[in-house]
Amino acid sequence: MIRLFTALSMPWDVVETLKRRQTGLPGARWRPEEALHVTLAFYGEVTETQADDLAAELARIPSSRFDIELKGVGAFGDDHRSTTLWAGVEANERLNVLAGRCKAAAERAGIRMEKRTYRPHLTLAYLKTQTNPDRIAAWIAGHNLLHSPAIPIDRFGLYSSTLSDDGSFYQLEREYPL
Fold first, then answer.
1. Cβ neighbour number for residue 38 with a 10 Å cutoff
2. Which of 144, 147, 155, 166 has the fewest CB atoms within 10 Å of its CB?
3. How far apart are CA 74 and CA 82, in angstroms?
């Protein structure tokens, strides 16, 4: 079984800008440079045959280049605690279409997808259970004016994800030009 997802990688200058924001919050496990991406679709554990079928279906996706912009920061979690810090992605119809096509490619490859609304974001950190909620709110307030210039998107990738005690390790398996 292989754990797969599709994502947009970020250019070096965007990664450098985000890395400068990854500080000042005790309890945050900041994501490394190579993990800073915008997920299009998460497929989970699939067989090698499904992975091959998915790769072929992704190659058939019609699309063209477009731009995205990062805007704002926030946190995901439940009513009691935040678990993830993220940078937002400004609403973008072409991004939503591409994500939908990645999901449809999985369905054609026989991969069941979770029924989940697509909320594009870039994960900056995972938060330890004991992270102080007031410090989280202060970090968000201090960085919420994030607004990147247009980021050109001319490709997306199919990545494998290996879980370890130190977090997830991502490997680019295939790249698809737009």
1. 23
2. 166
3. 10
Other C-beta atoms lying within 10 Å of the C-beta of residue 120 = 20
Instruction: Give phi and psi for 63, each to the nearest 5.
Output: -165, 170
Question: Confidence class of residue 167 from pLDDT cuts 50, 70 and 90?
Answer: confident
Q: What would the pLDDT profile of 71-86 be if each residue is shown by its tens digit?
A: 999 999 876 789 999 9
Placement of tokens 């999985």 in the chain:
106
Provide the terminal-to-terminal Cα distance of the chain, rounded to the nearest Å.
28
List pLDDT tens digits, range 57-70: 999 999 899 999 99
